[in-house]
Write a structure and sequence with these properties.
Layout (H helix, E strand, L loop, with lengths): L3 E9 L6 E7 L16 E3 L6 H13 L9 E7 L5 E8 L11 E5 L7 E5 L1 E8 H7 L5 H13 L2
Parallel strand pairs: 1-5
Antiparallel strand pairs: 1-2, 1-3, 2-8, 4-5, 6-7
């Protein structure tokens, strides 16, 4: 069965240059990974749930802040290397990336220790110009940045 996620790509133009909000996954597996590890805020779509509703819920859970009001522009879905399909929507907005409060998950750590530790789903967030974002983001999600850039070019 194919796993499906949905997320929100927030962008802003505070300096006239588009910047996008990316998040870094929390937990020990991601601790020392940077380039290629960041992602849009996203999460798995539950059976029967609308993908945009999932995207908005996951954004709030991972960021701890409200999703910008919209309008939401659908982006072309992508398939990540592991096979997961990700649906995304772009929305213009701004927020304090340094003030995120992420929900947590529990996992056995260290492995086979019998100890369960809570980790934030997202350990940090930041706004990046499109060139820097292309370095930071999961390679498959670069397509979201390309589509956003093309769309913004059309808006002048």
């Amino acid at each position: 069965m194919v796993r499906v996620s949905a997320g929100i790509l927030v962008y802003r133009r505070t300096t006239g240059v588009p910047e996008v909000l990316l998040v870094h996954p929390g937990g020990p597996f991601w601790k020392n990974k940077d380039d290629g590890a960041w992602t849009i805020p996203k999460g798995e779509v539950a059976e029967g749930e609308e993908p945009l509703a999932t995207a908005c819920r996951e954004f709030t859970e991972e960021i701890g802040q409200a999703v910008p009001a919209g309008p939401f522009a659908p982006l072309q879905s992508i398939r990540q290397r592991g096979g997961k399909v990700v649906h995304a929507w772009a929305v213009e907005g701004d927020l304090d990336a340094a003030a995120i409060v992420s929900s947590t998950f529990r996992m056995e750590w260290p492995p086979k220790s019998g100890k369960f530790v809570a980790f934030p789903e997202v350990d940090r967030a930041g706004f990046f110009d499109l060139a820097a974002a292309r370095e930071k983001i999961n390679a498959a999600q670069v397509a979201f940045l390309d589509e956003l850039e093309e769309s913004l070019r059309g808006k002048g």
